[in-house]
Amino acid sequence: MNGVATAHPTDAAEKKAAFELRKLDKRLHRQVGQAIADFNMIGPGDKVMVCLSGGKDSYALLDVLLALRRRAPVAFDIVAVNLDQKQPGFPEHVLPDYLRSREVPFHIEAQDTYSIVKRLVPEGKTMCSLCSRLRRGILYRVADELGATRIALGHHRDDMLQTFFLNMFFGGRLKSMPPKLVSDDGRHIVIRPLAYVAEADLERWAAHRQFPIIPCSLCGSQLNLQRVQIGRMLRDWERRFPGRIDNMFHALGHVVPSHLLDRNLYPFAALQATGVADAHGDKAFDDADDACGTPPAASPVIALRLDEPEAPGG
Ligand code: SF4
C-alpha cells in the first residue's frame, strides 16, 4: 500500500466522456458561429427558416442555432419548417412533439411529393433528383409565406467535400456546395451554417442530445451509390492520413486561380512580364512538385491547420 487513492475506472471513464462532450459542445458552437460570421449568414432582424428533415444534421443545426441565438449580439428569429412528403410510414407526430417541447415556432407543410415522384420516375431509377427539385420549390414558397429572409440547410463539411469530389470525378468541374447562395428563383438567401462541422461530430451530438431521428429510408429510394463510395474514400483517407479531410476542406477556401487552368478566372492570355520582383510570387521551379522526390514544404497555413485540426474554417 502506498496510500495513494486510485480513481474508480468507471468514474474516470465518465469524467473523460463528460470532458469530451464539453469539448464537442464548444467546438460545434464555435464552428457554427465562425461560419455565420465568415460568410455573413445572419444579420439583425433576419428570420431564419430552419429546414428540418428529422435527420441528425438538421436537428443539430436547429439545436445549435437556438443556443447561439440566446447569446448572439444581434437579434434574429427562428422558425422550423418540415416538409411532410407523405412517404409511407412517416411518423407525423415526431417533429411537432419535439418542436413544441423546445418551444420553437414551426410550420409543417404537407405535400404529397412522394406520389408524384413515384409516378414520374421509372422503377429502379433514383428518385432523389426530382424529389429534391420539388422540395426546393415548395420550401421557397413556404419561405415567402412565412416572411423568412434566410433558409438554413443542414449540410455539413463532409457533404461539401463529397459534392466537390462528385463534381470533379463525374462532372469535370471544381465545384462544391456553397455555404451561402442566392436561390435559383433569385428571391432567397440559402445558408449552410454547419459548413465547418464534421459529420462525425453531428453523429455524436445527435446521440448525446437524443434527437428523435426519423429514418431517411422511408421513401425506399436507393442511396446515391457514387456519393456513398466517395464518403468511404474520404473516411479511408482520413483513417490512414489523419488531418487530410481538414486540409482538403481548407483548400476549398484558399483557391489560387493563377495556378489552375480556368481562363475565365485568370487572364493567362494577357499576362506580361512586369520586371518587378515579387517576393511572394510564383515558386514555379522550387516546391511546385516533387519531381526530384522531395516532398514540397508545408506552407505555414497548412502547418497551422495540422496543429489545429478542429477549426477547418479558421
Ligand atoms: S432519399 Fe427519398 S426523400 Fe430523400 S431526396 Fe431521395 S427520394 Fe427524396
Summarize the structure.
The protein has about 325 residues and is α/β, with parallel strands linked by helices.
Name the descriptors:
314 residues; alpha/beta; six-stranded mixed β-sheet; 10 helices; 6 strands; 45% helix; globular; disordered C terminus; binds iron/sulfur cluster
Outline the structure in words.
This protein is α/β, with parallel strands linked by helices. The chain has helices at residues 9-38, 56-71, 94-101, 113-120, 128-146, 157-171, 199-209, 225-240, 244-252, 300-307; strands spanning 47-51, 77-84, 106-110, 150-152, 180-182, 189-191. Helix 1 (9-38) packs across helix 2 (56-71) and helix 2 crosses helix 7. The radius of gyration is 23 Å and the shape is globular. The chain starts with 8 loop residues before the first helix and ends in a 7-residue tail after the last helix. The chain binds iron/sulfur cluster. Iron/sulfur cluster (SF4) is lined by residues 127-128, 131-132, 216, 219, 221.
